[in-house]
Amino acid sequence: MLLAKVATHYRKIRGTKTMKSLADAGLLDRINGSARLMIVSDLDSTMVDHDDSENLSLLRFNALWEAYYRHDSLLVFSTGRSPTSYQKLRNKKPLLTPDITILSVGTEITYGESMVPDTGWTHHLNRKWNRDIVVEETAKFPELAPQSETQQRPHKVSFFVEKVKALEIMSFLSEHLEKRGLDVKIIYSSGIALDILPKSAGKGEALAYLLQNFEVDGKVPLHTLVCGDSGNDSEMFTIPKVHGVMVSNAQDEFLQWYKQNAKNNPNIIHATERCAAGIIQAIGNFCLGPNVSPRDIKDFKKCNVDIFSPGHEVVKFYLLYERWRRAEVDKSEQFVKNLKSGFCPFGIFVHPSGIEQPFHQCLDYMAKLYGDKTEHQFRVWVDRVSSAQIGSDTWLVRFYKWELSGDERQCCVTTVLMSLKPDGFTWVHMHQTWLEGSRARDQTAWCF
Ligand code: GLC
Ligand code: MG
Question: How many whole angstroms separate alpha carbon 258 and alpha carbon 237?
Fold first, then answer.
């Protein structure tokens, strides 16, 4: 029903930008047809576990996504956060770059890395909405404590309020606002946050709008998985045909909603795992594709995975590199020899400092650094892996390689030329440049 409603609105507004924006962001070139899987995930306490200072489940998800899904699937983050507070989280946590970002509880939709806003969506939210009236009416409730200025947005007015008061205030407010001619939606989340939005906004409506646009273009993802933990996520679970996972740490108000509204829906599970680990669990549960993160593979030689994907190749190499510097693998010459066998002996690595060196020399240097990061919470992840086959056995692979060491975080935009041999990929040439603003203070400390 939600979908039909949005479809009607959709026809009324001046046309949407979803397809054009996705094309501009280069996403449609990558996904030639329908996405195999679209994951639409909340961030706080769903993708991101604030109790996990090492971000292990998030890093497990990242490795899984870049190895097996990035090339033909869509990653959508749908958060209650405003653009500024989303940016803060990105600077703090190892989040991947999503293809689509839905912000401020479904009131803002943006596309691609550069986050091009969907102005059609914003325009559509103005119907029966007047922010000033909302502010005026809510000021009559002293129990409502306004959230910080950065969380207040054109189509979102947010407060904190105690659980015991919330229900009563919500019903009073809807009545008052309706009398003043507005059509609003009031959502309570995490037992503390109260958001007032236009009725046509929200995480569910925003997702329905995206799906509707995909449908117009005949590109509805084969599968959609929505992931959440709190009240503002529940709407996403009402969209027809989507799979849903409530992570194990879901909030009371969300579990309550599930009991009353969706208990018999076989497409929704309450995971036994927390946050991103619950998302991985759901991928397995609904058989949506590979569900073993490369981070969970101890010995790549023994596992039967698709070694012919450039994404998997890149993820695997950097995992082995991380394990070497964290001393999580045995210090053996064989390990370095195995790594070397994947690199062309005459291949050149152009270091971000501009210095050119043969691959094998770089690997010899790396070999000396065994265990140097055991005490630095050292982590490596790759983002936005993309690849193009440019010859019968040649691939050009591009990705963002991130490294976290202590409080320092660096990133290089990386291009690798690989050739595919019967037993896997060989790295032929590699070039890195610093991502603007994330250059290492000591450039010589950067290995790969
Ligand atoms: C996020 C937002 C906050 C909102 C809450 C619930 O925490 O920052 O403004 O109230 O989500 O939607
Ligand atoms: Mg959340």
Answer: 9
Residue 79, Cβ neighbours under 10 Å: how many?
26
**In one letter, which amino acid is 83?**
P
What single-letter DSSP state applies at residue 364?
A: H
Largest Cα separation within the chain, whole Å, is 76
Q: What integer pLDDT is reported at residue 13 of this predicted model?
A: 43
Neighbouring CB atoms inside 10 A of 113's CB total 16
Q: Ligand 1: which residue has its CA nearest to atom 8? A: 81
- Counting from 1 in the atom list of ligand 1, the atom nearest the Cα of 194 is 10
Residues of the chain with pLDDT under 50: 1-3, 6-8, 10-15
The residue behind tokens 């959609």 is 224
Residue 190 CA: nearest ligand 1 atom is 6
pLDDT of 276-332, one tens digit each?
A: 999 999 999 999 999 999 999 998 877 766 567 999 999 999 999 999 999 999 999
Instruction: Give the residue whose CA is nearest to atom 12 of ligand 1.
Output: 80
Instruction: Name which residue sits closest to atom 1 of ligand 1, judged by CA.
Output: 80
439 CA from centroid of ligand 2 (Å):
32
Q: Write down the pLDDT at residue 28.
A: 61
CB neighbour list of residue 171: distance below 8 Å, 6 or more residues apart = none
Length of the chain: 448
Sort strands 157-160 and 145-146 into parallel, antiparallel or unpaired. antiparallel
The residue ranges of DSSP E strands in 170-222, in sequence order, are 184-189, 193-198
Give the ligand with the smallest distance to the CA of 102: 1
Q: How far apart are CA 101 and CA 108, in angstroms?
A: 8
| Nearest Cα residue to 279 out of 310, 191, 86, 289 | 289
Tell me the CA–centroid distance for residue 177 and ligand 1, in Å: 21
Please report the DSSP string for 392-418 in residue order. SSEEEEEEEEEEEETTEEEEEEEEEEE
Integer distance in angstroms from the first to the last C-alpha of the chain? 51
**Residue 12 confidence (pLDDT):** 44
Is-contact 66 98, C-beta < 8 A? no
